[in-house]
Every structure is written in structure tokens, then in C-alpha cells.
UniProtKB/TrEMBL annotation:
<dbReference type="Pfam" id="PF01565">
    <property type="entry name" value="FAD_binding_4"/>
</dbReference>
<protein>
    <submittedName>
        <fullName>FAD-binding oxidoreductase</fullName>
    </submittedName>
</protein>
<dbReference type="InterPro" id="IPR006094">
    <property type="entry name" value="Oxid_FAD_bind_N"/>
</dbReference>
<dbReference type="InterPro" id="IPR016169">
    <property type="entry name" value="FAD-bd_PCMH_sub2"/>
</dbReference>
<feature type="domain" description="FAD-binding PCMH-type">
    <location>
        <begin position="45"/>
        <end position="217"/>
    </location>
</feature>
<dbReference type="InterPro" id="IPR036318">
    <property type="entry name" value="FAD-bd_PCMH-like_sf"/>
</dbReference>
<dbReference type="InterPro" id="IPR016166">
    <property type="entry name" value="FAD-bd_PCMH"/>
</dbReference>
Length: 449
């Protein structure tokens, strides 16, 4: 830790840029939803920044970068803190750089927008939908998450059933990045070069501005369909995903008793029934309902777009919000993130359902990978021990399922599994002292071992 006198000098060097030193605020602004993982709870609970800095412009970010490099201070980037893996938690104290004040939508063109990193996803949509366009995809934290945080720490979400994942070519056009060199610069990365900082946890550049592609804005209806059998529900989800003529944004399949944790939806979730939580474009509803009938299922909830915009959105019961709702009822739950291999019959999904039963409640989200409809699971795991959690992970991997491990804060040990040399080499270029989010990038740490 650095002395308070040093931080006085540091604050003075920043001039009028906002700094926060209140201990309660430092605690709050140093954390995300890492507590979803009992493993991370033990590792990260005591990690707190020495100071939080809130610039309001790219010019102020450059000024902060210069002062931090001169003093060799660790810098951890923060958007809204809605991540789950400790991405924005400062392992080495120092400065948390809160970018939430860089929140402007700079321009919107047909199919494209330029936005600052701290702009909230819902706020971006509000602007772009006025001209008939919307974000292609977003996490369940849509109302609070920032675009920079999503690009830096996310992977996909609502909308991925159509557009795939963030990393897929065409889902991010360009970024502006501030470096932490002796003389900080602003670099523009375009095209495939955006991969150098995409999903890098802010370890190798401070994203200040992004050019993002948009999709056509639809009137999205929210629908709940219930089933007596989970695998029947899951295969319905696969069939809906593959029905390319039906325009949809969300296919989330929840095994009972998960629906019992959704308090405000309880009237539409009969006891013992497995549920599909869906977003379907209104022009597709008629033939969507014909598909539901063909599968012998029942629609219990249908809200058209005009009403769906009021109150809690159905998307806030899916993806990682499912975990949030379950843990609010039973904090003993944690979760996994499982990508099943392409298999329209969902054979491995059924195997895991039978293998683990109530210990790992099945929760599927469907999205596209290389053009194919794939089931990903965010199973709710009844946590007993880290050893047992690791056994469950190893069993999945041995059977051919890919686990994006949400119980590690190391970038490559979570979703990537391999060191991305382009990202490591870019860090060497733009952050030669290793000041950005230190301790999170294994490829950088291994350079010195």
C-alpha cells in the first residue's frame, strides 16, 4: 500500500479530474459479482483499490495514464462492475479507473454507431432505436452494464442466437485505446485488430471509444412456454433456434425447480413444469405459435413489445441473471458455464442432466457458433466443496463439453484456455511495465518465469 501523502500528491497531479477516497466507496467500486463463485470469494474479498479516478473524456484518460506511468501505479479498469469473474477487481491495489463518465453516443449511421466506453447498453439502444437500429447482442445486465465492460469482459448474450459471439468477425468494427507507455498514446484498432483487446479484461489497453455494428430493431414480444419434460423443452429450443424464418433474440430453457426462483413470474410458471423464456419478433408470432402447438407445449405468458418495455424484462431471468435470482433464494448455489458440442439431438445435454440431477440444475441458452445452433449451459450447482466442483468440471471436459470456468480470475484459465500471443505481444507494446490489471493475464506472467 502507498501512503496517504503519496495519494495526496497523486490527486493534486490530476487537477480537476474526480477522485474518490472514501473507504466505503473504494470497497464498492473495487468489486463485481465475483461472489457468485465461492472459490473467488475466498481469493478476492480483501482486494481493494487505494483510489478511484473518474475521468470524463479521453483527454482526461490520457492525463491519468501519464501520471500513473510516471509513478508506476497499477491501474484496473471498471465499467459498471457487472462481471462475475473478478475482471475489475484490483489484485494489487492502486488505481481503479472508472470509465462510467465517458458515456456519449457520438454518432449513429445505418447499421453502425460510435460510442464511448462508459455508455450503458440500454442507453445506447434508446438512441439507436430512434432510427430503426439496435444492439446486436447484450448480457442480462443490459440496463446497467457499459459497452466497454461488455467488450472487455463479456462474450455474448441476448441476441447471440442470431449474431453469434462478440469475438466473431463483424461484431466489433473498431476501438480507440489509450496506452500506458512513457508517453501514452491513443491508438485506433480496426477490423481483425480489435481482437487484440476484445475480452482481455482491460489488461492491455484502456478502451475509450468503440464503433459497433447494429442490427435492425424489431418489436420484441416476450413469451413463456412450459413443458412436462425438460429434454422435450430443450429440443424445442434447438428447433426454434434452427427455424431461420422465425426472428428471435432469446431462447432460454430452464429445468424445474429453477422457475420457482423467479418470484415475479410465478403466476406463469406452474409447479413442476420446465420453462422456455423467449424473445420473438412480433411479425413471427403467428408461425411461432404454430411451432409451439406442433410440439404440444403451452404458452402461459405473452407480452407484446409495447408492454414488454415496462417493468422487469424477461431477459433479466436468463443467462447469468438466472444465477442471481437462484442465489437470492438459496445462496448455496454457484454455477458453471458449459458449451456443448454441436448435436441437434442434445445427447450430451441429456447425459449430464441424468448424471448430476439436482446437484447441477440444467439451464440452457442457445446461440450460434460458426453458423450452427449450439446449446450452452449455465447450470446451477449446489456447492459442497471446491474439490467436488472441480470433479464436476473434469467430468464434463472428459465427455467433450467445454467449460468456461467462472471460478478463476485468470483470463486464459476461464474461457480462452490458451494463451493469445497477439494479446500478450500487444500488452508488451502498449503496457511495457505491466501496470494494467496486473495478475490477470497468464501469458504475461509466464514471460517472466
Amino acid at each position: 500500500m502507498t501512503t496517504a501523502t503519496n495519494w495526496d500528491t497523486f490527486s493534486t497531479a490530476l487537477g480537476d479530474i474526480e477522485v474518490i477516497r472514501d473507504r466505503n466507496q473504494l470497497e464498492k467500486l473495487s468489486k463485481d459479482y465475483y461472489h457468485f463463485s465461492p472459490v473467488l470469494q475466498k481469493q478476492l474479498a480483501d482486494k481493494v483499490a487505494d483510489i478511484v479516478v473518474r475521468p470524463q473524456s479521453e483527454a482526461e484518460v490520457l492525463q491519468v495514464a501519464q501520471v500513473c506511468v510516471e509513478r508506476q501505479l497499477p491501474v484496473t479498469l471498471r465499467g459498471a462492475g457487472t462481471g462475475n469473474y473478478g475482471q475489475c477487481i484490483p489484485l494489487a491495489g492502486g488505481v481503479v479507473l472508472d470509465l462510467s463518465r465517458l458515456n456519449q453516443v457520438k454518432w449513429v449511421k445505418p447499421g453502425m454507431a460510435c460510442v464511448e466506453a462508459g455508455a450503458k447498453l440500454a442507453a445506447i439502444d434508446k438512441v439507436t432505436r430512434a432510427s430503426g437500429w439496435e444492439l446486436r447482442m447484450y448480457p442480462s445486465t443490459y440496463r446497467t452494464a457499459t459497452i466497454g465492460g461488455f467488450i472487455g469482459g463479456g462474450s455474448g448474450g441476448i441476441g447471440s442466437i442470431t449474431y453469434g459471439q462478440l469475438r466473431d468477425r463483424g461484431n466489433l468494427n473498431a476501438v480507440r485505446v489509450v496506452t500506458l507507455e512513457d508517453q501514452p498514446r491513443v491508438l485506433t484498432l480496426r477490423g481483425d485488430d480489435v481482437q487484440k483487446v476484445l475480452h482481455a479484461y482491460g489488461t492491455n489497453g484502456i478502451i475509450t471509444e468503440l464503433e459497433i455494428p447494429l442490427g435492425p430493431a424489431y418489436a420484441w414480444a416476450e413469451v413463456i412456454v412450459v413443458f412436462d419434460d425438460f429434454m422435450h423443452a430443450a429440443r424445442f429450443g434447438q428447433a426454434l433456434g434452427e427455424a431461420d424464418g422465425l426472428v428471435k433474440k432469446l431462447i432460454s430453457i430452464q429445468a424445474w425447480p429453477i422457475p420457482s426462483y423467479f418470484q415475479s413470474l410465478k403466476p406463469y410458471l406452474p409447479t413442476g413444469k420446465h420453462a422456455a423464456l423467449l424473445m420473438v419478433a412480433e411479425p413471427s408470432l403467428e408461425l411461432f405459435e404454430a411451432l409451439v402447438k406442433a410440439w404440444g407445449a403451452e404458452i402461459t405468458y405473452r407480452k407484446l413489445a409495447a408492454e414488454a418495455g415496462k417493468g422487469t424484462a424477461i431477459a433479466e431471468f436468463t443467462w447469468n441473471h438466472t444465477t442471481l435470482h437462484a442465489r437470492s433464494v438459496d445462496p448455496g448455489f454457484t454455477y458453471l458455464q458449459t458449451l456443448f458440442p454441436y448435436d441437434p439431438e442434445l445427447t450430451l445435454v441429456e447425459h449430464m442432466l441424468n448424471q448430476f440431477g439436482d446437484e447441477a440444475l440444467m439451464h440452457l441458452e442457445f446461440f450460434r457458433v460458426e453458423g450452427k445452433v449450439i446449446a450452452a449451459a449455465l447450470q446451477l450447482v449446489r456447492y459442497t466443496s471446491e474439490a467436488r466442483l472441480n470433479e464436476i468440471i473434469r467430468y464434463h471436459e472428459a465427455k467433450g463439453a467445454f467449460i468456461a470456468n467462472p471460478h478463476t480470475y485468470i483470463l486464459e484459465d476461464g474461457g480462452r484456455k490458451t494463451v493469445d500471443l497477439d494479446q500478450v505481444n500487444f500488452k508488451a507494446e502498449v503496457d511495457p511495465y505491466g501496470l494494467l490489471n496486473p495478475g490477470k493475464m497468464r501469458g504475461w506472467l509466464e514471460r517472466f518465469n
